[in-house]
Amino acid sequence: METYDVIVIGAGHNGLVCAAYLLKAGYSVLLLEKRSLPGGAATTEELMPEAAPGFQFNRCAIDHEFIHLGPVVEELELNKYGLEYLFCDPVVFCPHPDGKYFLAHRSVEKTCAEIARFSDRDAQKYREFNAYWQRLVNALGPLFNAPPQSLLDIAGNYNLQKAGDLLSVISSSRNILDFVRTMLSAPIDVLDEWFDEEFLKAPLARLASELGAPPSQKGMAVGAMMMTLRHAPGMARPRGGTGALVAALVKLVQAHGGKILCDRSVKQVLLNDYGEAVGIKTSNGEEYGAKCGVISNIDARRLFLQMIEPSAVDRADAQLRDRLNRKIVNNNESLLKIDCALSEAPRFEAWNHRDDYLIGSVIIADSVRQVEIAHAEPSMGNIPDSDPSIYLDVPTVLDPSMAPKGCHTLWIEFFAPYQIAAPRGRVSRARAGRKSANTKWPIALSTN
Ligand SMILES: Cc1cc2nc3c(=O)[nH]c(=O)nc-3n(C[C@H](O)[C@H](O)[C@H](O)COP(=O)(O)OP(=O)(O)OC[C@H]3O[C@@H](n4cnc5c(N)ncnc54)[C@H](O)[C@@H]3O)c2cc1C
Fold this sequence. Notes:
Blueprint: E1 3-9, H1 13-24, E2 29-32, E3 44-45, E4 57-58, H2 72-75, E5 85-87, E6 92-95, E7 101-104, H3 108-116, H4 120-144, H5 151-156, H6 160-170, H7 173-184, H8 187-194, H9 198-208, H10 225-234, E8 236-238, H11 243-255, E9 259-261, E10 266-271, E11 277-282, E12 287-296, H12 300-306, H13 310-316, H14 320-326, E13 333-342, E14 361-364, H15 368-379, E15 390-393, H16 395-398, E16 408-417, H17 429-432
Parallel strand pairs: 1-2, 1-12, 2-9, 6-14
Antiparallel strand pairs: 3-4, 5-8, 6-7, 10-11, 11-12, 13-16, 14-15, 15-16
Bound molecules: flavin-adenine dinucleotide.
Flavin-adenine dinucleotide binds near residues 32, 42, 62, 63 and 64.
């Protein structure tokens, strides 16, 4: 049996990053990927080769912010493997129905100047708002870059600036009370406390809701930082699309002797008599050995509930299977994604169109209420298709190499239900409230 030090199940970008660090530390690594190409939800593909040849689409991820909070790109020297990040500026455009608009630049000062066209007060408040959340991002950032549960490693990630920001957030009883109150609040409570204008609050609420909760959700105020991240560290896209990040990681992995096998769906983790992972079996019957262990790039539910013998999981942790079975994995809200190939870029004629409106994300959020409904409808099983709040990008404005000359691609995302309710009037009362075996959500069944 072919044997490596470590096997990684799945070659998504996180599996590839993990493999890269292991290879640099001297381990031999094999990645097994179910699809015919690596990258998972971070690929760029010619999704419509017949209808739209030459148009490259980001299948899922497009705007990169969180990766710049950590050291991965620099530590792995991904630029040496062909990765080039293009930073967006402006970062957000949101046209408002009354003719106003929110145009956020990477610079906070330039953003304040745009807001001041319509409200001096909100422009001043935006400066203070952003400074507060920037300190919070700096204070919380080190948590992202430490192994979970390792307080010492987390502490080691604080440099003087970050420690200062943390102290400024928790330094006095008033600050700490403010911090706790803010964290327990809903995004809309926070936005109402700071701002007057709907043209500003609505896009900030929409960006906050990207964390998967409506603006009214208590305890989700942290979503307010989603705009702050676009100022610093900034929002960027790899030249050539998100798949260029994966391509650089693949080159690095291969340059260090790592092996990536595609079209290999892992079916089972092989265990020794002590319950230790010593290899894997694929669905076509191949077996590969792992001397040091098996690492999963796929979710814990599928790993522990489908790929490992139940008695072995129970021996390691008697509660684990029950915890995973009860884990809520969605609130019936999923992302619906639409890709379009365009012969020309969209224009915002009613807002004195400027091409730079299309460089960052375009947010359609007419009001905080519209954003709220964009979440409420999916949670009831309804598709918010009449007037949805949406998030869209035209990546070819920043990177024309992703489409034939003069053409563009359009990436549209909005919230949609995972379990779709039947049309009203066709729902059997007897059955409507029944829960399926696999979901915590009622399945609405038609009787005729
Ligand atoms: C529509 C959409 C838009 C998004 N937009 C953004 C964005 O703009 N910015 C951002 O930062 N994030 C965005 N995200 C989130 C981001 O795409 C994901 O968080 C990220 O790609 C997850 O990477 P991963 O490596 O952890 O997992 P995955 O990419 O899911 O990788 C897991 C890999 O395992 C493989 N696999 C699964 N089962 C098996 C098996 N049995 N055997 C072998 N291989 C297997 C899969 O094929 C996959 O390649 C978006 C997500 C979606 C869905």
